[in-house]
User: Which sequence fits this backbone?
């Protein structure tokens, strides 16, 4: 009897390859610069607030110094309680997200039980590792944040990965992407010595903080897009609580933007 | 044995039919019924799950050998999932699962006289398919499939199917509430059960119809509920997200079964 029931194996048996899969046999590039500029982007961040996890990302995708797209969605629903926020190459990240989403559903339907959180994390880790050849060549690294709500422990959880697939759990917050260096220290400072620790923030204050952080990142990183109300471009902000996943509407973001960004006083 | 001689081959097939039908006769019937907000699948059993989610809007219920059911269920999930991934969720249809997957698989196994056939009858439901709000397929043990809109039933044998269908024919299913649909499905199940238990079936159709009309179907439900539990699941348009499958809540089940439970 074979241990059937893995979705990626099923796909591979039908000839499926991840975008980086074709490169696996080739010698990694020697570092010579190529004219090819992969599309990448981003600031994404996640933090634990009172009810669970807030996870957010800007909307910009860039290639080199060019803005490719200002409405990219980098915070992708995987299931009712899980979100994958991606920085790095969207081509591969979207494919990883898609494989992951279908894997979880497939597992539930085929094995007649939800995949455990541990197994979900392992699947993601393996997918990132499968992408290693692309990461080494510098054309398609994917560095995601995975956020979920652990119903057994009744609390939100945030995990982040390196390009080789190593997995780390964040205690309070996490941020990755080209804009993240601009806000990482700010997040640490705010959580440590701000008026409230992140874990005590209510929903509005949490979203307000997230908007401020993304705005700060966009101030110093050209690859991070801004909130543009006139053009109807909002960052993606989602909450994950015991009730599941929900996206904060553009309308509400507009209102909170007015309260938290256009007005200066502290939180 | 010389199965390549035509009459022996026909003989072997007929033996096979008899064998499989004999195995299926005692099985608990399954009912699929469309209602106002979705599609209902219902059966009764001990504890083993018999109603399954295949894809976002596609479900399956069956009677027969548990391992055979499992094999076919898994291959249906595989087929649907691969198409859903490689194309899109909208490209996964029940028609495709039955025409390209289950139908041929069951037929092949039935035709291979040297191997044991699948002992199954399968009922599949699709919510909001291209050609109807509630579309059903049944696949019989010999691979013969049948499409229907509104409702579909499977009992232990052809007579049971007919008895069950008779309870649902006149329903205006598109207007049914879930509670009404549950009740209709339960009565249809009881009709199938009653017919499955008749050792001598009257040749004359009118006589059979009369006997069925006189059967105490609520009484059968009451008696069966002493030892069996109702399993019911719906594909409900009201479920948020793309996956519409949900099992009925204890409250919904309890209120549907109230008339058939002995007073405590």
Assistant:
């Amino acid at each position: 009897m074979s241990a059937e029931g893995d979705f990626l194996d099923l796909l591979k048996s039908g000839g499926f390859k991840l975008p980086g899969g074709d490169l696996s046999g080739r010698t990694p590039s020697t570092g010579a610069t190529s004219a090819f500029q992969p599309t990448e982007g981003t600031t994404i961040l996640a933090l634990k607030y009172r009810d669970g996890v807030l996870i957010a990302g800007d909307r910009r995708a860039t290639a080199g110094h060019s803005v490719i797209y200002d409405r990219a969605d980098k915070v992708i629903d995987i299931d009712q309680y899980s979100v994958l926020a991606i920085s790095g190459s969207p081509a591969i990240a979207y494919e990883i997200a898609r494989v992951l989403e279908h894997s979880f559903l497939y597992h539930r339907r085929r094995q007649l039980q939800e995949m455990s959180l541990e197994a979900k994390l392992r699947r993601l880790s393996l997918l990132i590792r499968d992408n290693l050849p692309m990461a080494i060549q510098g054309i398609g690294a994917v560095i995601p944040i995975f956020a979920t709500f652990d119903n057994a422990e009744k609390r939100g959880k945030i995990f982040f990965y390196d390009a080789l697939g190593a997995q780390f759990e964040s205690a309070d917050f996490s941020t990755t992407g080209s804009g993240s260096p601009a806000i990482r220290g700010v997040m640490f400072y705010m959580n440590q010595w701000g008026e409230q620790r992140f874990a005590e923030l209510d929903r509005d204050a949490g979203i307000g903080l997230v908007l401020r952080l993304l705005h700060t990142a966009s101030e110093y990183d050209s690859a991070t897009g801004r909130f543009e109300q006139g053009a109807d471009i909002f960052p993606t902000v989602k909450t994950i609580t015991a009730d599941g996943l929900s996206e904060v509407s553009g309308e509400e973001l507009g209102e909170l933007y007015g309260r938290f960004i256009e007005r200066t006083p502290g939180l | 044995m010389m199965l390549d001689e035509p009459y022996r081959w026909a003989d072997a097939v007929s033996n096979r039919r008899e064998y499989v039908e004999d195995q299926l006769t005692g099985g608990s019937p399954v009912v699929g019924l469309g209602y106002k907000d979705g599609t209902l699948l219902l059966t009764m059993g001990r504890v083993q799950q018999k109603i399954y989610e295949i894809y976002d809007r596609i479900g399956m219920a069956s009677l027969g050998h548990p391992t055979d059911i499992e094999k076919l269920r898994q291959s249906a999930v595989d087929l649907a999932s691969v198409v859903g991934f490689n194309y899109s969720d909208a490209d996964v249809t029940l028609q495709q699962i039955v025409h390209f997957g289950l139908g041929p698989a069951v037929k092949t196994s039935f035709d291979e006289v040297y191997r044991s056939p699948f002992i199954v009858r399968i009922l599949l439901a699709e919510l909001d398919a291209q050609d109807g709000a509630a579309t059903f397929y049944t696949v019989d043990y010999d691979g013969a499939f049948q499409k229907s809109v509104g409702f579909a039933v499977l009992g232990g044998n052809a007579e049971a199917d007919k008895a069950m269908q008779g309870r649902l024919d006149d329903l205006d299913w598109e207007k049914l509430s879930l509670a009404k649909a549950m009740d209709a499905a339960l009565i249809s199940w009881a009709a199938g059960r009653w017919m499955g238990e008749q050792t001598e079936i009257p040749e004359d159709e009118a006589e059979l119809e009369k006997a069925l009309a006189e059967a105490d179907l609520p009484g059968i439900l009451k008696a069966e509920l002493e030892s069996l539990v109702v399993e019911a699941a719906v594909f409900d348009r009201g479920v948020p997200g793309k996956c519409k499958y949900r099992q009925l809540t204890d409250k919904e089940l309890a209120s549907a079964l109230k008339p058939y439970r002995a007073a405590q």
In short: Chain B is about 45% helix and 25% strand. Chain B has one domain: 29-253. Chain B has a mean pLDDT of 92. The beta strands of chain B are 30-35, 38-45, 51-55, 58-64, 120-129, 132-139, 145-149, 151-154, 229-236, 245-247.
